[in-house]
Design a protein that fits this description.
Elements lengths: L2 H22 L11 H17 L5 H11 L9 H10 L6 H30 L1
Pfam families: DUF2784
InterPro entries: DUF2784
Protein name: DUF2784 domain-containing protein
Length: 124
Amino acid sequence: MSMALLAADALVVLHLLFIVFVMAGGFLLGRWPRVAWVHLPAAAWGAFVEFSGVICPLTPLENRLRVLGGGSAYGGGFVERYLLPLIYPEHLTPAIQQALGVIVVLVNLAAYAWVWHARRRRRS
């Protein structure tokens, strides 16, 4: 595998991590308040990209690296290429959707129970 293709794959991982940080980085503020100095501009950029419809510059850079490495570029943006197939798999059935819904509920119940328990323990 060429260095350019490796760099393109690394950029995909970086892009995904950036999106996760934009979406969930605010949760880090309880532990590390100074994260806000990085998270607020990142969140503003993420919102700008979504509201304006521009393609994030990481997507054309990834495509360029793929072409340089002998691969092929793709159309659309990062979300259409990588995230939509994860969110809406081709063979999604009602049973799988229900199972995913149960997982979401259980994870959130566990998270809320953990927070409630931690607050209760601090009060005692």
